[in-house]
Amino acid sequence: MNLFYTIRDELKQIGYVDNLLQEDYVFDDAAASGTQDLTIPLAAFAQWPPSYRNACIGVLSANGQSGPRHISMYQTLGAPMFLEAFPDHVDRYRIEATGKPVFLESIPARDIRQIFKLNKKKWSPETIFRAKAIAQVAEPVQLDFVDIGLLPALKGMIHAKLDRLLKDILREAVISYESILSSKPDETSLFRLVFRFLAAKIFNDRKHPGNWSTSKSSVIIDSVQKFYGPFEAGTQSVLDEPKTQKIVWDRLRGAFNFQNLSVEDLAFIYENTLIRKETREQFGIHSTPSIIAELMVDRLPFELLPQEGRYVLEPCAGHGVFLVAALRRLRELLPVSWTDHQRHSYLKERLTALELDTFASEVCRLSLMLADYPNQDGWQIISEDIFGGNVLERLLKTSRVVLCNPPFEDFSMAERNRYGDNVQNVHKPYEVLRRVLEHPPDMLGFVLPKSAIMGERYSDLQDRIARNYKNIETIALPDRIFAYSDQETMIVLASERDESTRSAISTKTFWVRENDRRSFLETAQLPEAIGKKVNRASHTVPISLWHPPLFEIWEYLKANPRLKDIAEIHRGIEWNIPLTKSRDIFISSDPKPGFKKGLANVREKIEPYYALGFVYLNMDEQYKRTNAHLLPWDRPKVIVNTFIVSRSPWRIVAYPDSDGLVCRENFIGIWPNRDINIEVVSALINSPLVNAALYTREGKRLNRIVTLKQIPVPFSDTIDTEKISFLVKQYAKLRFEFERHPLEKKEINQCIKTIMEIDGLILKAYDFPPRLERKLLELFRGHSRPVPFHFPDYFPEDFSPCIPLHKYLEMDLKQASAGELLKRITPFDSEDMHEFFMDIEAGQS
User: Fold this and answer.
1) Distance from C-alpha of 339 to C-alpha of 18, rounded to nearest angstrom
2) Any idea what DSSP says for residue 412?
3) Are 42 and 9 spatial neighbours (Cβ–Cβ below 8 Å)?
4) Is 61 within 8 Å of 4 (Cβ atoms)?
């Protein structure tokens, strides 16, 4: 025990002071399916209130039990490091996300104080918390005892447990209410009741002063009401049925211990369990993950503002996730000598939420109270309509930082009529951002639809941001980041106000790819930035904030002709009657008078250089909706898909048609001019270049004609038309044989080699520097190509030399080692081969 107390004293010395050090800390075993309280003798936390999210170090005494099995009993505490005290030494362990704790070292008792002194910075609350949880702007903190997968694993267990509990309670409450009153309860009143009891449960488990453990539900409701402070009359009613109230409170009171929960878990409850579908639709609610909010506030330089001037506003606040993140950010910047009362007074004056929905406002208030526990209310939550008056303009006069995830919906006709001239754009995110930029704050962070930055829809607002701020970042997020929203999203961060027309600005773009979605949500680590310096004075056209991935490629090809210069591009035919009501009138599996052979569906009907599943389409002009019926369908053309074939970079496929096929509007027809044939055009469309262009410039569903037209193509004299045409026809024959019977491995390899040769010749025609071509091809690594066999990566993962694909294939380098390459290669007097030799030499040194 003497050694245990020595550890406690040393933890105080390295920063775990006051309530950051908890003795006999009680918490729920999140890994258990039911209720199972654990008590750890000593736990050290980075912040107050304590939770698994800010737990840093757990300390155990070896009393009868010891070793990895003993430590593993407590791993849901959330601390990445454990110390186990014996009479004469201390064992140190690292907690893994999965598996047993890992033994790190044994420390003799005589060396304990010296070890703590040596590791003072490494084991401090700030360092461990940064390494474990915070989305960082700087390089990530690397600690030998922190498994970055631990926090996501615990969060997943806790969220699943909370979700099950709340759904069970809601279901039982509805059954009780219906059995007594023979009608369904009002959902808002029921959810509000549940949240009152949830608050009481948290206060009880955290041992907050008051009678939070009483079984009397009416007493609990009154106590929570008093704790909140005054409410607007008639807007905060809870479900008023005593037996249902008792059922809900009894279930929550007897549930697992909430002490180790974080405020982020509370937000999860709100977004995933307590918000009605109608409320989401009415207010455009789409959950903002806490990791996104933290990333945004950590990348904005709050520290550049004077301490007294750090006023933060969150319009369209929802449950206040940005304010909770900002609270943490502001608190970390305050002097450590400040008391709880001083911090609370400072923070409540500087954080303001604007949210129309009263229930969301209530959750926002509770989230802030829990984040600033044990202080009570006083938070500025303003329940007014952001679009209906001048409330935003009024608040912007004192706000220095604005953080917002606005509703993504368009205004309904009823809303347009109600707001009248107050609204200048039908798109709600545009309108919110426009109003904020009328009174630009010192810095802002917005979540916007990706189309706002990648397209021209917000070009005027992008330009306004660029002319008001010196440092601007855009972060393109992958799909499915925001729960309950299918929108593609983009983060925009702007800081350092400067309206000088002569100054240059710094713009950066980060592109988080779909393959990195999960790891991004767990760690918020960003990929390498695409950065540019922009001179405001030289820009007479609106400044764009978006730098597309592979921008060096698009810069390199800016003088090349475009696809629209070599071909006519049109949508397929459309009928004037919905297909769902009259499919038999327009599509037939057999030939009919007035019908033409063609394609009706994309999925599994078209792939690179091949099509199948032909049907017959009605060409009667009385049914035409557009003039597509009149297009020269009998002429040679290339047919491509309008809707993407996958979410990967392989988005578009092209089939060269010389048989006069017709296609529906979910296809696009491309008619080349006399200088190029359909085989070459299909090779261009199927190439990595065109797929990459669409992947980096388009939304997640469509290949639009307007984008296709602007894609660069090679100069005509660089295209090996004869060889490409031969290879395309050769592959079509091989693919036809594949349809008739399964091909042998040798024949499949021939299919792969033929497609790769076509790709190599197309890229050769673009005449890329080797490193640019390799960068393009690396975009497709690990992604399945839409062909009926496995299509491998272009280069082995360990093949580092940059060499053009066509030369790599010509020299049959796939089976060659680096040493064999030097013997096999015939000398070339060219820049790309010089780079290749340099890469090999570097690899052997």
Assistant:
1) 11
2) P
3) no
4) yes
49 cis-preceded (ω within 30 degrees of 0): yes
Can you read off the two tokens belonging to residue 62? 């070896």
Sign of CA dihedral 81, 85, 91, 96: negative
CA distance 211 to 269: 24
The two beta strands, 637-641 and 567-571, are: unpaired
Give the model confidence (pLDDT) of 772-785 as tens digits: 999 999 999 999 99
How many whole angstroms separate alpha carbon 94 and alpha carbon 829? 56
Give the confidence band of 230 by pLDDT, cuts at 50, 70, 90: low
Structure token digits, residue 666: 């979910």
- For 656, the 3-state DSSP assignment is strand
Give DSSP secondary structure letters for 579-618. TTT-HHHHEESS--TTEEEEE---TTTEETTEE---EEEE
Which run of H or E residues covers position 473? strand 469-476
Residue 148 has a pLDDT of: 67
Phi, then psi, of 485 in degrees rounded to 5: -140, 135
Both tokens of 481, joined, read: 């980041």
Residue 743, helix vs strand vs coil: coil
Distances (CA, A) of 158 to 266, 270, 808: 11, 14, 51
Closest by CA to 71, choosing from 55, 58, 87, is 58
* Cα 587–Cα 589–Cα 591 angle in degrees, nearest 5: 90
Degrees, nearest 5: CA angle 493-494-499: 165
Q: Could you give the residue ranges of the DSSP H alpha helices within 501-650?
A: 517-523, 551-556, 563-566, 583-586
Please name the residue ranges forming H helices in 439-506. Answer: 451-454, 459-466
Q: What is the pLDDT of residues 518-557, one digit of tens each?
A: 778 777 778 888 888 888 888 778 898 888 888 899 999 9
Q: What is the pTM of this model?
A: 0.76
- Gap between the Cα atoms of 579 and 582, Å rounded: 5
Residues 177-219 pLDDT 10s: 999 999 999 877 887 888 789 889 988 998 888 999 999 999 9
- Contact call for residues 598 and 629 (beta carbons, < 8 A): no
The alpha carbon of 167 is separated from its chain's Cα centroid by a whole number of angstroms, namely: 26
Q: Is the dihedral of CA 334, 338, 339, 342 positive or negative?
A: negative
525 token code pair: 């680590």
**Ramachandran angles phi, psi of 121, nearest 5°:** -75, -40
- pLDDT computed for residue 282 by the predictor: 57
First to last CA, the chain: 56
Tally DSSP H helices, then E strands, for the chain. 32, 25
Distance in angstroms (rounded) separating the CA atoms of residues 772 and 552: 8
What DSSP string runs through 680-693?
Answer: HHHHHHHSHHHHHH
Determine the 3-state secondary structure of 48 from DSSP: coil
> What CA–CA distance (Å, rounded) separates 839 from 827?
15
Report the distance separating Cα 104 and Cα 101, nearest Å. Answer: 9
Closest CA to 509 of 325, 289, 301, 697: 697
* Residue 370 CA to its chain's centroid (Å): 26
Four-CA torsion 466, 468, 469, 470, nearest 10 degrees: 80
